[in-house]
Amino acid sequence: MSVEAREARQPWILLSPALTAVALLLFVPLIFIVIYSFWLRTATGADQVGFYLDNWQEALTDPFYRDILLNTLKIAAITTAVCAVMGYPAAYFIARSKGNKAILLLLLMLPFWISYIIRTMSWINILGVSGAFNSTLMALGIISEPIQMLYNETTVILGLVHFLLPFMVLNVFVSLDGIDTNLEDAANSLGATRWQAFMQVTLPLSLPGLAAGGLLCFVLGAGTYITPMVLGGPTDAMFANLVFEAIITQLNWPLGSALSLMLLVVLGVLVLIYNRYLGMAQLMKGLG
Amino acid sequence: MGWNLIRAWTFLVYMFMFLPVAVVVLLSFNASQFGSFPMTGFSFRWFVELAQNDAILRAFRTSIILGLLTAAISTTLGVLASLALVRYRVPGTNMISTLLIAPILVPEVVLAVALLLFLNFLQINKSFTLLLLGHVIFTLPFVILVVQARLVSIRRDVEEAALSLGASPRQTFFQITLPLMLPAVLAGALFAFTISFDDITGTLFWKPGGVETVPTQIFAMLRNSISPEINALGTVMILMTVGLPLLGLAIARKLSTKSGT
Q1: Are A118 and B234 in contact (CB < 8 Å)?
Q2: Lowest CB count within 10 Å: A126, A176, A196, A206, which one?
Q3: Higher per-residue pLDDT: A45 or B29
Q4: Which residues in chain A have Cβ-Cβ distances shorter than 8 Å to B91?
Q5: Cross-chain Cβ contact B81/A14 below 8 Å
Q6: CB contacts, 8 Å: A280 with chain B
Q7: Contact status, residue A150 vs residue A124, Cβ threshold 8 Å
Q8: Helix residue ranges, H only, chain A
């Protein structure tokens, strides 16, 4: 073999283990559940191989599934909006601060390392019947009986915001940090007020970061089932809870496949739209 | 005026992120019977109880073994792939990068279901193997992103110098490239370990009955009520997942100042 040919083959040898893993553990399984979703679960519990549209019909026409899907998208949208409102000024502050940028950034990274389940359950200590909030209110004599503040849709959103906010701040920060501050100064010297300079120069330039953060918040928020299980009430199930229910509890794997694919398509369309207009590069910046 | 408002807002945002976690740590030292306020005194009793709880110790062992194996496999695959992407001109690099990070573009629940059903079809039931494969595929994109970002900064001329001075490609790799890459490799491994150690979304689908990792153990304990033991367990986990990367960061900084890159 010539030196050139060997040189050309080398990267493929290096890439092949990772590509094989992704193919066998992600792409083939995804194709497999497409096929599986057309099988049928029989009363005896065995799966009937074939081409049945029953699962899809149930998943797409049953108002129960449709309502929970819409509610899931609503919760994800509210979560994303709250993250943007809370996170943008914070990211702006970090990007423009001089002295403690490094420490603020390090603190921003810390939540990524603190376990999701612990951050979620920590709200029980705050809002629970004997949590910090109720104890304080009772000690101050404002209430005589503890109030149940947990286990509703608001606490699910609260938990999701707490989980996803760092993703938003980090992405907005990355994009703000890349903007030349001279641009804002130039706008000021040309007669714009600081607010005008921000609205017409900085904000538009930071939109890619806001969009990347928003996409991550929305997709991760809409795909969760742990937060509703820990912080939600019995009626606060999200779409991923239905998948969990079908696969783990009912063992109805064909229906579970159809529901998973529905979630994948809905969220996948969002990722594709994002990719079409903004490309994956921005997202990679925030993740790496 | 505006700036002070933003500063105050940022302060509140940080409080929001850290206060609940701080309360977990605070309550884990509570002497009281119950995992809640009021604090009745300072005590290590819940940590002592943790150390005597067999279920929790088993969960720790499972999580650590799983995390180490995941880190080893994922980092090996990730470093090789990153080398190819950074060091060679491969046709379709963008496409390949997108394929390699696809596991985090797909919602984790869907990844979990697809892998569980497919491997079950291949007669690989819920088992430690399934758990490990799941964690590997889920952590691989993060390793690739982290390692790639750091590999870019390693200058090629050092290697070229070694080659031109008569070192074989193999010698160059082991004596020049690998030591220079070490911080990147360690960062990737640490990242994989932390993500695996923290994961619950996929783990609940893949774990066989009776096997618990630390997060699923906490989840199972939450079903009853929040006990002081859970807070203590949370504190230990925070120490592990925050303390380890900070330690790693310090080591990486030391290594990189020593090698002068």
Answers
A1: yes
A2: A196
A3: B29
A4: none
A5: yes
A6: 97-98, 101
A7: yes
A8: 3-22, 28-36, 54-61, 63-96, 101-113, 116-127, 132-139, 153-177, 181-189, 194-197, 203-222, 226-231, 239-244, 253-278, 281-287
Q: Is the peptide bond before A254 cis (omega within 30 degrees of 0)?
A: no
| Side-chain half-sphere exposure of B2, counting CA atoms within 13 A | 8
What global pTM score does this model have? 0.91
Closest Cα in chain B to A225: B201
DSSP H stretches of helix in chain B: 2-28, 45-52, 54-87, 93-105, 108-121, 128-151, 156-164, 169-172, 178-198, 203-206, 214-222, 228-259
Contacts of B128 (CB under 8 A, 6+ apart): B66, B208, B211
- Minimal CA separation from A125 to chain B, in Å: 6
Any B CB within 8 A of A237 CB: no
Chosen from A125, A257, A262 to mutate, greatest number of chain B CBs within 10 A: A125
Backbone dihedral angles phi then psi of residue A41, each to the nearest 5 degrees:
-90, 125
Two tokens, residue A132: 């910090």
Task: Please determine, for the modelled complex, whether the ipTM score is greater than 0.95.
Answer: no
CB pairs under 8 A between A and B: 249
The whole-angstrom separation of Cα A81 and Cα B185 is 37
Instruction: Quote the CA–CA distance of A52 and A55 in Å, as a whole number.
Output: 7
Distance in Å, alpha carbon of A262 to nearest chain B alpha carbon: 10
Mutate to test the interface with B, among A10, A68, A83, A117 (most CBs of B within 10 A): A117
Token pair belonging to A216: 């991550």
Instruction: Report d(CA B146, CA B183) in Å as an integer.
Output: 11
* A218 to chain B: closest CA residue: B107
Exposure of A118 by Cβ count < 10 A (0-12 exposed, 13-18 middle, 19+ buried)? buried
Q: Which of A119, A240, A28 is nearest to B205 (CA)?
A: A240
Q: Contact at 8 Å (CB) between A265 and A222?
A: no
Task: Show the tokens assigned to B211.
Answer: 């096997």
Beta carbons of A257 and A41 less than 8 angstroms apart: no
**B80 and A18 in contact (C-beta within 8 Å)?**
yes
pLDDT of residue B251: 77
Listed ranges A234-243, B214-223, B231-240; the one with the highest mean pLDDT: A234-243
Residue-level pLDDT at B258: 62
Q: Read off φ and ψ for residue A176, nearest 5 degrees.
A: -65, -35
